[in-house]
Automatic annotation (TrEMBL):
It is found in: Cell membrane. It is a multi-pass membrane protein. This is Ionotropic receptor. The chain crosses the membrane at residues 438-460, 625-647. Residues 1-19 form the signal peptide. GO terms for cellular component: plasma membrane. Keywords: Cell membrane, Glycoprotein, Membrane, Receptor, Signal, Transmembrane, Transmembrane helix. InterPro entries: Insect_Ionotropic_Sensory_Rcpt. It comes from the Eukaryota. SUPFAM superfamilies: Periplasmic binding protein-like II.
Length: 658
């Protein structure tokens, strides 16, 4: 027991001596100077949630705790609220130092900016309100924590970080700058953290702040650590802020898969001489809305597009049964192989580990069905009024005939019928009406003008236009039609209605180009994005008269936003998002989308009408209704003539018999 008491006393004395030794050294720490707090207040001035995270191991636990206690006594007068966290890691045997000897230089002179501009720059590189002040004994300890479990250190990639290495031994002074360069470089390369500074407040240039510039080009490589003194920083706080506005032709990994409208390599002929499309080198030759958004980003931020071969040529990603994408640009962003996926995607899966930038379009997943059959032109006469209207017109004619028979100067029924028929249908007839007959004939004449005017106008429209039967405009109509839905695209459709359930049963997975069968055989349906389907119908699936062969059902299956995406936590997300938002708000994204589709549609119309006469004479098909009327009139005349002959023979026979 005496041995244990003696050992405890010795340990207590050693702890006190170490504390006193560190206390003497801590008086030289830079947190005793006002410039220290001014710098860190400006570094964290957009932060609402401030966290002090102490990381330590067994070896230097007492020294780190002593520094933390002294630091906490002074922080209360500078930060209103903060949270303290502590992480502990046992002493590792394979402890090694990491250096970056060629990646640190003195800081360059930058133009000073005001506080408002500083806030704008910080907001462009970070969308997080959290700040983390990480305290570690030395750089190797922090490396050990990152190796063991980096998620305890880096909670948010776009948060604001400050690294404090509180050792006070001078043995590190010859190499500490290279070690800091290595840890800052690791924060960027491995964890995509750009808002981070490092400091050794108690030893080795305690008045220097280190920051990593990922896009500064030195010789043939990018990335350098720069350091600034307290005086340089307090005179210009821009020095410890990364301004992500010039990547100096940094090769940024991008995935973009060619498709018909969004990312076009072979431009339509109508756009080849357009100044906007003259030079597409920034997007590696891609036009369309996806290509031009990429080109604008590359020009704005001065980076070189390094196209990464995707795992597939498919525009849409395949998903494994557990919901993980196995192919396409989405999978490349998840791994991540790329910094930005430039293909437009539906925002349907919010549980994926990607960040979607601001949406630039809204699209719908719709059902594409055969267009309704053309209505024969000869039926135009019978379709100009409804059945009720026809019945009322016929009843009016009968009533007018009866009234005229009662007030007419003649008692012959045939004469009364012919007179009224002439007035009602515009045939010339000589009648000198009395005053009581004038109003009846005038009303019949006006009735004739209105009814025949409508009939003539409708017949003219029937001759000059093509009319179709009733199209399927609801999902219920599609369900009742019994058509099988052959498709390669069926996005997650919400709803448990019987109609949706029936449509799911009719799904048949097939190739992407099934529209030829829909237009030709007319016994199946398909699904596609509304804008893409409309483009196909207007550019390809039209007949020789330019009329559509397919129809998009008005009631669509699903509506979703469309946008690009980046790996989760990307440091470039905020600046890309801000730039794309300006393209969307200015209407450029919509214009670029319409440029390709309208040009291809126009080219197809020109090709379709190339061999057609501009002014075309009316064909027999166009005038068929006129001939039908003549034939119809002749048939009635023959019928009346035969009736008169039969009546005359019957009348003559009756006289002879009498």
């Amino acid at each position: 027991m005496r041995n244990n008491l003696f050992l405890g006393t010795i340990l207590h004395i050693l702890t006190i001596s170490l504390s006193l030794k560190f206390t003497d050294k801590s008086e030289q720490c830079s947190h005793y100077y006002n410039d220290f707090w001014i710098i860190y207040e400006n570094h964290f001035f957009l932060v609402n949630k401030f966290t002090i995270h102490v990381v330590q191991n067994e070896k230097n636990q007492a020294e780190v705790n002593q520094y933390t206690n002294i630091f906490l006594k002074r922080i209360n007068s500078h930060f209103d609220a903060f949270k303290i966290e502590e992480s502990f890691l046992g002493d590792l045997k394979n402890h090694k130092r990491r250096f970056c000897k060629n990646c640190i230089i003195p800081g360059t002179t930058l133009d000073p900016i005001d506080q408002q501009e500083l806030a704008r720059i910080k907001l462009l590189s970070s969308d997080s309100s959290n700040g983390y002040y990480i305290v570690s004994w030395d750089v190797e300890t922090l490396h050990d924590f990152l190796d063991h479990n980096s998620s305890t250190i880096i909670l948010e990639e776009r948060a604001t970080y400050a690294l404090q290495f509180v050792f006070h031994s001078s043995e590190y002074c010859s190499t500490i700058e290279y070690q800091i360069g290595a840890i800052l470089q690791r924060f960027w390369v491995d964890y995509n953290v750009v808002n981070v500074i490092a400091h050794t407040p108690c030893s080795c240039h305690s008045s220097r702040i280190y920051i990593y510039r990922p896009f500064v080009k030195i010789n043939e490589s990018w990335g350098i650590t720069q350091y600034y003194s307290f005086d340089e920083i307090t005179s210009n706080f821009r020095t410890i802020t990364n301004i992500l506005d010039n990547f100096n032709q940094f090769p940024l990994n991008i995935t973009i898969i060619p498709n018909l409208l969004g990312a076009v390599i072979n431009l339509p002929n109508l756009l080849k001489h357009n100044p906007i499309y003259q030079n597409l080198s920034s997007s590696k030759g891609f036009g369309g809305v996806d290509g031009l958004i990429l080109a604008t980003l590359a020009d704005r931020f001065n980076f070189d597009v390094n196209l990464v071969n995707t795992t597939t040529d498919k525009y849409f990603s395949d998903f494994l049964p557990q919901g993980t994408p196995s192919s396409g640009g989405l999978n490349d962003a998840l791994e991540p192989k790329v910094a930005y996926s430039a293909n437009s995607k539906f925002l349907l899966r919010y549980d994926l580990n990607v960040d979607f930038v601001v949406v630039h379009a809204v699209d719908h997943l719709c059902v594409v069905v055969p267009k309704a059959q053309k209505i024969p032109k000869w039926t135009g006469l019978f379709r100009c009024f409804t059945q009720n209207a026809w019945f009322l017109i016929a009843s009016t004619c009968i009533v007018c005939t009866v009234v005229w028979y009662l007030i007419a100067p003649t008692t012959s029924l045939s004469d009364c019928f012919w007179t009224m028929f002439s007035y009602l249908f515009g045939s010339p007839v000589k009648v000198v009406p009395r005053n009581n007959q004038l109003f009846v004939l005038a009303s019949c004449l006006y009735f004739n003008i209105v009814v025949l005017g409508i009939i003539q106008g409708y017949l003219f429209r029937t001759i000059t236009t093509t009319e179709f039967g009733l199209d399927m405009d609801t999902l219920d109509d599609v369900d009742k039609s019994g058509l099988t839905i052959e498709t390669s695209l069926w996005l997650p459709v919400d709803g448990n209605s019987s109609t949706i359930a029936n449509l799911r049963k009719k799904l048949k997975w097939t190739g992407f180009h099934v529209y030829d069968s829909v237009a030709t055989h007319r016994n199946i349906a398909a699904t596609n994005l509304q804008f893409y389907a409309d483009f196909l119908i207007r550019s390809k699936y039209i007949d020789e008269e330019g009329l559509p062969l397919l129809h998009i059902v008005d009631e669509c299956l699903i509506t979703s936003f469309v946008g690009h995406f980046m790996p989760k936590g990307s440091a470039l997300f905020t600046i890309f998002n801000n730039a794309i938002m300006k393209m969307v708000e200015s209407g450029l994204a919509h214009k670029w989308l319409r440029d390709i589709s309208d040009s291809k549609i126009t080219e197809n119309i020109i090709k379709l009408n190339k061999n057609k006469e501009v002014i075309r004479a009316f064909s027999l098909y166009d005038l068929q209704i006129a001939f039908y009327l003549v034939v119809f009139g002749c048939i009635i005349s023959v019928f009346i003539f035969l009736s008169e002959v039969l009546w005359h023979k019957k009348y003559t026979l009756r006289i002879k018999t009498q």
